[in-house]
Structures are given as C-alpha cells and as structure tokens.
Specification:
The complex is a heterodimer of chains A (about 170) and B (about 725).
Chain A (H helix, E strand, L loop, with lengths): L1 E5 L2 E5 L7 H8 L18 E4 L2 E4 L13 E3 L11 H8 L9 H14 L5 H7 L9 H12 L20
Parallel strand pairs in A: 1-5
Antiparallel strand pairs in A: 1-2, 3-4, 3-5
Helix pairs in contact in A: 2-5
Chain B lengths: L19 H10 L14 H4 L5 E3 L2 E3 L5 E4 L9 H13 L6 E4 L3 H6 L19 H23 L6 E4 L2 E4 L4 E4 H9 L29 H4 L14 E7 L6 E5 L2 H4 L4 E7 L3 E6 L2 H10 L2 E4 L8 H11 L6 E6 L2 H6 L3 E9 L11 E6 L4 E5 L4 H12 L6 E5 L14 H11 L6 E4 L2 H6 L7 E9 L5 E10 L2 H5 L31 E8 L14 H18 L4 H8 L4 H14 L10 E9 L2 E11 L5 E11 L6 H20 L5 E2 L2 E2 L17 E6 L12 H18 L17
Parallel strand pairs in B: 3-4, 8-18, 16-17, 20-21, 24-27
Antiparallel strand pairs in B: 1-2, 2-3, 5-6, 6-7, 8-11, 9-12, 10-11, 13-21, 14-19, 15-16, 15-18, 19-20, 22-23, 23-24, 25-26
Helix pairs in contact in B: 3-5, 5-6, 12-13, 16-20, 19-20
The chains are: A alpha+beta (about 170), B alpha+beta (about 725).
C-alpha cells in the first residue's frame, strides 16, 4: 500500500511506481474531476496542485510524490465551489464543454496565489492550458474579475442568472 | 421515460446545476466513487414517485420544478440551455426552477420518435427544432391552464399563466403548475397551438446563464471518460496505423501476465484491444504488445501523392457543377484581364479535449452503451449493428461530451469497437478509452481540397466572370455514400450555392461556374466544425482580396459592388466594417483584412487587425465579428460561440495540418498538432445583428471567416499572399 495526502485526507492505494499520478487519482482514488487530455504534459487538463504548485499529473510518476506532500485536485479546491476562481467561472459562464476547465481552474488558482494581480503577460506565460472550445477570452476576463476582488460586473458580460443576479 | 429504472444511469446526465452542492461535497470528500450515486442523484426516480409528464418535452414535479427534455446533445455549444429557454418561454414557467434531462435514443424509438431528430451537428440544434420544442412548451402550458380552469370550473380563456403560477382574475384565485400537473397530464393535448411573437419573449432572447456551468467548475460533471459502473473493466485499443490495413499477427501471451490484464482481443480485422482492471494497465500492456500489421494497399500513401492527385483534378474533365450562371468560359476568353490562383486546404483532426470513449455491456439478450455522442440515434444504430441485436434490445445513454466538433456525430467507430470488445466478455461493462495518439491518428478528418480560381475582369476592374474549380475530397463519399447522386456531393459547395436559405454565395457575378472534381485520398473524411464552408470561404474571400489589390480597389468597396442583390450578406458585412472602423487610420504597423460568408443558416463577417514584425511574428490584435442568425436566442452564448469559433478557425489557419506518410497520419499529439493558446488569442468584439424571420446556427459559421480575415490582413501587412494552409509552413519575415 502506498499513501498520498489528497484534498486533506490520507489515501491508500496500490499502483506500480511509474503509474502517473493522474491515473492514481482517477482510477484508484475515484477523483475523475482531473482529466486525461494528452498524456505528455501538453494540454494541462490534468493540472493539480502539489504543495501549492501547479503540476501536470499525467507525467508525474506517483512514486515521486511523498505521503507528506499535499495534493489538491479540483474536487478539493473548495468544499462547495466557493473558491474565488470557481465563483468567477460560474458568474461569467466560462466553460463550454468544460473538459479542460478543471485543469484551467487549477492553473489559474495557482497563478493568482502567486500573483494576485497578474498582467496579461503573466497570464499568457502561466496559463498554457489548451481549450478547444475556445474559452480563452472568458478565462482572461474571469482571472481579472478575481484579481479585482470578485467584481463580476466588471467583465461587462451582463449575464442574467437564475437567482436574479446579473454578472 | 427512464423513471423507475434507478439501476441505469440513463437520465439527467445533463446535470441541473441546482443539485450541484450536494454532488460537489460528496465528490470531494466521499472518496472512492462507487457506481454513480453522485452525479445521478436527484433524479425523479431517485426521489420516488412519478412526476407527471405533461408531454414529451415537459415534466412538472409537485414542487414546481420543471424538467425539460433535451433531445440534442450538449457539447459546450450551449444548445441545452437554449432549447430549455425555448420550451420555458412558451411554457411561461419559473426559469429558476428549470432542470433538464436527456431522453434516451431507445425511448425515442419506442415512442415513435416523440423527440424527433437527436443529431447535433451542422449548427442545427436550435434552428431545426425551435418550432416543435416551442410548441411542446406552449401545449404543456395550455394543458396546465386547462387543468386549473377545470378545477375552478371556469373558462380557460379567463385564466393567465406566468412564472409557473396560474391565476383566475375574476375570482382572484391562483395555483401553481406543480399542483395541477397531475390533472394536466391526463388531458388531451391541444391540436391548435399558437406561438408567441418573439418581441414578447421574456426567457428566450435573453442573456441567461447556462444551466450546466457549475458542475464544470467543481469536477462534478461526469463525462464519458469518467463513468464508473459496478464490475467495470477498462480497455485500450490500437487500430492499424495505416488506413485500410489489418492485423497480421500478435501473441497475447506476451502481455497476459502483466498487472491487471484480463484479456487481449482482436477487434474486427484491423485492431487489437487489451482489457484490464484499470485503463493505465490496459494502455501500458498494449504498448508492450508487438503487433504485426498487414499494411495493405495504402502502405506507401503520402501527402505528396495526395497533393498530386488533387492538382490533376484542377484541370480534369470529370467535374460536376454546383452553381453556374452565364457562360464562364466565353467570358474568361474575352475578358480584358484575367487573374488565376490556386489555393489548398489540408486535413485537420477535430482534437476534442476528451478522446473517443464508450462503455458497453453486452449479453446475448441486451446491449447497453454509455457514450458521449452528438447523435444518440446513430450511436444506437451502431451499437445494434455491432451487438448483432435489434435496436429494441439495445440502449444508448448519452453522457456529457468533452467536445464534439463533428467527430462524435456521423460515424460511431469507437462505439462499434466498445461493443465488439464487450461481446468478448458477456455481462461485464467495458470502458474503452482511446489514447490521444489513437485519437489523432484515427480521426475522421477535415476533407482536403485544392481550388483553382479564375477571374475575368473588364477594363474598369469589374469582375465579369468567376470560375472556381474545386478538386478533392468528398465527406459524403466517405460517410454517407448513399447520398451521392449522379456523382455529386452537394456539401462540397457550402458557401458557394445559388441564392437560397443555406450556404448561398453572397455575390452576383455575370458569369459564374463552381464545379468539383472528386478526388478521395485514403484518409477517412468527416464533418469537422464548419465543414466545407471553412476552406470555400478562404478560397473565395482571399481571392476577392487578390482581385481588389490587383485592381487597386478597396476590398470592402469591391465586395459591396458585387453584393447589390444580397442584402443580408451585405448588412452583416457592413455591420462588421462599421464597428471595426474600416477605412479609418490604424496604429502604425497594424493592418486590416475582411471576409464574409453565409452558412448553417446564418450570415457572418469579420474584420481582423494584425501586425507582423520584421522577423515574421504575426500578432492578431483585434477581431470584430458580426452575425445575423435571424433570431438571437441567447446573446451571451452567441458571443461565446463566436469567440470560440476564432480559436477553432485560427488554430486551423495557423497550425492545423495532418499529413500522411507511409499511409499513416504523422501528427499524434498536441506536440505535433499544436493549437492556439491564451497568448495568441486576440480580443474579439461580437456584433449580433438579428434581422428576424429565420433561424440560423451560431456554432460554426464564424469559423469560416476567421482565417480569410486574418490572411487578408497578413497580405495587407506583408504583401505575402498565403494560398496554402497552415500559416506555420510560411515565413512572414521581411525580405
């Protein structure tokens, strides 16, 4: 039995040492929010946090992560979707198909932790996740919403939500 | 419907966001996911009882929750929300209490296709079902009102419905949809159903938030790849890398003892699959297996050979006509000036973020498939055929799609494979997932074509004749050969058709000939978001730009002259040009390009502003895009589709190319098939100019103007005319 600390809990599992962390998360631990997109760290759909740093879990052998290191997946970013990045994403209807968005959100959350008010150049450099639906402009708008303290109206999208609010 | 069969995950995969908090917290802290109690919780069945179905489209629960049935697939394009808006508008229900669910293809079959067509491609989700889904909503409203009127013993005409509340003014009584739903469900459906005037819309036409967003921000959304069934095993597959090749030999014993491996099976005559406890075990075992291939007749096929074949088609005599007026050959012969150019467009992979996958369970009596599909009915047909069981003994459960773009619509090759593997292990659910490499090298590719354009001009630079000879691949020949009539694939001519409601050319030429010499290379074609509108618009719009520059005319002015009899095309072109400030000075080093087209029922135009550095680096600064979709059902989602269309269209223009070597596709992952990322994404301003009276799609048409607007701007910036894509193969460096 090997151990990992995932989303604040110690989890036991069995897998060969060279199994990518992604597949341990998805298949051994049942955390399917983290996605397989390319398997070669090109697309970022598999992004998780390891000790607060964004990591592409599809190329990270599970044996290189110790039981002491803290892994956070999209399921553990917040208990109830209330992380500022998740809230901005929902307010601006960022996702289309949504498949890349777990990784996108994890990459953005890590960026904003390091740089709470990133420039466009910072965003371009750090957010290299692939989205085939083409949500990039809303991703950028949502990052700026978070940087500006969560003022969702600042994006100017005028989206009407079912609860009567407008963002 | 699926009510009552709680053991199948058929329903409500389009998760209503209102269940989100329950699902999220469970997913985050509940640990190992067993079965599907999390994503499928909260369905009618799970809550017990049978809420009344008012009609095929509308279920109303006692708590006034309205479940709207959605026949088309949601793959990111927003149709799920848009279709719900249409039903809810006519239903006059409380939008805050709307949820959705997919009826299954099997149910559609059993109920004489009560939900009509499931096909979700060609931007037809809304434009081809708006009428009957609105009528479904209106009929349900009439029945609910009638039920209340019956209860109160008053004429229905005296009752009003709004926001899921029915009131009878004269007696000052009111009730809710949930309270009368059961009685309403027993009434005879009305035959005469009137629809609202769009100017009275309160839900349709509004910038409403999508119904399916929140679960996509928490990891709770279950895609096909995420499905887990009790007792399920996982499969990885390798199809012959050469199109048309076969398996010659493999020795299962070579990998039988690897961890988790359960079975090694040949699938059809061309593929080998490994079934294991986990997909990672299956995939790594398959990678370790030596497979000898019989590479067949295409073993030496190459892109150069294909290009040669297409080039010959440009001058061949076996072309079929798609559009013509006047006498092009005579007009070209007598023209004061003639301009010719040859363009080409390569194969492209859809590269959906979620690779192809399906879970299948087969027994001699029944076959069930869970899969992300753009066409549940086509998936059911494929499952039935592969299972060798009648469709009535099969079922397909549509799961959320991690992208579609046409790959998951017409051909369900991955479903056939999953069923074939499941047949080898009766009773065990098998989840087949394609690796990215498998997905890239076994696509259904955007067709490859070349186009020779010849224009005749009079001495004043007016275009008197245009001949467009298209040579190349037919999608229908590869996908629906039965639809080829007299050697003609009408889809080839998208955007170049005679005047009419679909994909019509926006210009009047005194003499016009558009014809096609079909040349099909050994690469399977498919419908790729935007389809043939993509390259046809590049050909025509870039060539018109060439004519404009060659005759020293403004590209916009030249187009306007040719568009006198095409007011809808012209209005959208003008809308884009005006917003972009066409003709006004730009920052030094920034240049504009313009393009327009019509397809999938909508009129679109774009202006691009670009600069090119001395060392050839292209920067796209700004795009202005105008769309006339007739009616704008949800403007904020139209904007999302337009922005996304530039990512898809510009990824293709800048990078997209699948090349053939030794019968194989050379690009096998995003490392060799790059796509646009955040750093290259321009600002996009979307101008929606709905002129009413028709319904056009918005998921695809804008893709077609992305490349030509940018390529025309690149010419303005550099004097370099790019006639064969992608742009990455060209240097834009200043000489």
């Amino acid at each position: 039995m090997a151990r990992l600390n995932v989303n604040g809990a110690v989890r036991e599992f069995e897998a060969e040492e060279d199994t990518p962390l992604l597949w341990v998360l998805r298949e051994q631990l049942g955390l399917t929010g983290t996605k397989y997109g390319c398997g070669i760290a090109q697309c970022g759909a598999c992004t998780v946090h390891i000790d607060g740093e964004p990591a592409r879990s599809c190329v990270r052998p599970v044996s290189t992560v110790t039981a002491e290191q803290k892994i956070v997946t999209i399921e553990g970013l917040s208990k109830d979707g209330s992380h500022p990045v998740q809230k901005a994403w929902a307010a601006l209807d960022v996702p289309q198909c949504g498949f890349c968005q777990s990784g996108m959100i994890m990459a953005v959350a890590a960026l904003l932790k390091e740089k709470p008010n990133p420039t466009d150049a910072d965003i371009n450099q750090s957010i290299t996740n692939i989205c085939r639906c083409g949500t990039y402009n809303r991703v950028r708008a949502a990052i700026k919403v978070v940087a500006q303290g969560g003022n969702t109206r600042s994006a100017g999208l005028a989206i009407q939500h079912a609860d009567g609010s407008t963002t | 419907m699926s009510r009552g069969d709680i053991d199948t995950p058929a329903k409500a995969v389009a998760n209503p966001s209102r269940r989100r908090f329950l699902g999220t917290s469970a997913a985050a802290f509940g640990g190992l996911m067993v079965g599907f109690h999390i994503p499928f919780a909260g369905t009618a069945a799970a809550q017990g009882g049978t809420p009344p179905e008012i009609n095929a489209w509308v279920v109303v629960k006692p708590d006034d929750t309205v479940v709207i049935r959605i026949a088309r697939s949601e793959m990111g394009q927003g149709s799920l929300t848009g279709l719900a808006q249409l039903v809810a508008e006519e239903l006059d229900c409380n939008w805050a209490k709307v949820t959705t669910e997919y009826p299954t293809p099997g149910q559609n079959l059993a109920r004489n296709r009560a939900w009509g067509n499931f096909s979700t491609g060609g931007s037809r989700g809304i434009r081809e079902s708006h009428d009957y889904v609105r009528k479904g909503g209106a009929a349900a409203r009439m029945m609910l009102v009638q039920a209340a009127a019956n209860e109160w013993q008053v004429p229905a005409a005296e009752c009003r419905a709004a926001n899921s509340v029915i009131t009878h003014g004269p007696s000052n009584r009111s009730t809710t949809y949930g309270k009368v739903a059961e009685a309403a469900a027993k009434l005879t459906p009305p035959t005469d159903v009137a629809l609202k005037d769009p100017k009275d819309w309160k839900i349709a036409g509004k910038r409403l938030a999508r119904l399916d967003t929140v679960d996509k921000t928490t990891g709770a959304q279950i895609y096909g790849m995420d499905l887990k069934l009790p007792g399920m095993l996982n499969a990885a597959i390798k199809d012959c890398p050469v199109f048309g090749g076969k398996v010659r030999h493999f020795d299962a014993a070579q990998i039988q003892n690897r961890p988790g491996v359960k079975k090694v099976v040949q699938v059809g005559d061309s593929a080998v699959a490994v079934v294991a406890d986990t997909w990672w075990h299956a995939k790594t075992a398959l990678d370790a297996l030596t497979i000898e291939w019989d590479e067949g007749p295409n073993a030496k096929a190459s892109s150069a050979e294909v290009a040669q074949m297409l080039k010959a088609g440009l001058e061949a005599n076996d072309a079929v006509v798609g559009n013509q007026n006047g006498d092009v050959r005579a007009a070209l012969a007598s023209a004061a000036r003639r301009i010719d150019a040859v363009y080409s467009y390569p194969h492209q992979n859809h590269a959906t973020m979620e690779t192809m996958n399906a879970t299948a369970k087969w027994t001699p009596e029944r076959c069930e498939v869970w899969t992300p599909t753009q066409n549940g009915e086509a998936a059911l047909a494929a499952a039935s055929e592969a299972a060798e069981l009648p469709a009535s003994k099969c079922e397909v459960y549509k799961l959320h799609l991690g992208g579609g773009f046409g790959r998951r619509g017409a051909v369900h090759d991955w479903v056939r494979q999953a069923v074939a593997i499941a047949k080898e292990m009766p009773g065990t659910p098998i989840k087949l997932i394609w690796s990215r490499e498998e997905d890239m090298t076994h696509g259904r590719y955007h067709p490859i074509t070349q186009c020779k354009l010849s224009a005749g001009l009079d001495k004043n630079g007016n275009v008197t004749a245009l001949h467009m000879r298209i040579s190349g691949q037919s999608i229908l020949a590869g996908v629906f050969p039965q639809n080829i009539k007299d050697g003609k694939d009408p889809v080839v001519f998208q955007g170049l058709n005679p005047p009419g409601p679909e994909a019509s050319i926006g210009y009047g030429f005194p003499n016009l000939l558009v014809d096609h010499a079909m040349r099909n290379p050994p690469v399977p074609p498919g419908f790729w978001r935007g389809v043939n509108l993509n390259q046809n618009t590049i050909y025509l719009e870039c060539f018109l730009d060439e004519i404009a520059h060659a005759t020293k005319q403004d590209p916009l002015a030249l187009r306007r002259k040719l568009m006198a009899n095409h007011p809808k095309h012209l209005a959208v072109l003008n809308a884009a040009a005006e917003r972009a400030g066409w003709g006004k000075p730009l920052k030094k080093g920034v240049y504009r390009g313009i393009a327009q087209t019509m397809g999938f029922g909508s009129y679109v135009a774009a202006v691009a502003e670009v600069s090119v550095s001395d060392d050839g680096v292209l920067k796209i600064h700004r795009i202005v895009a105008a769309t006339d979709p007739g009616y704008a059902l949800n403007p904020q989602q139209i904007e999302a589709q337009v922005e996304g269309s530039f990512v898809y269209g510009l990824s293709a223009a800048l990078y997209g190319e699948c090349t053939l070597k030794d019968g194989r596709i050379e690009q096998d992952n995003f490392s060799t098939y790059p796509v646009m990322k955040m750093d290259e994404m321009p600002a996009v301003e979307t101008v929606i100019v709905p002129s009413g009276g028709f319904w056009g799609g918005v998921g695809e048409p804008t893709i077609a103007v992305a490349a030509p607007a940018v390529l025309n701007a690149v010419f303005a910036a550099t004097g370099k005319r790019i006639r064969d894509l992608p742009l990455k193969n060209h240097s834009l460096k200043r000489a």
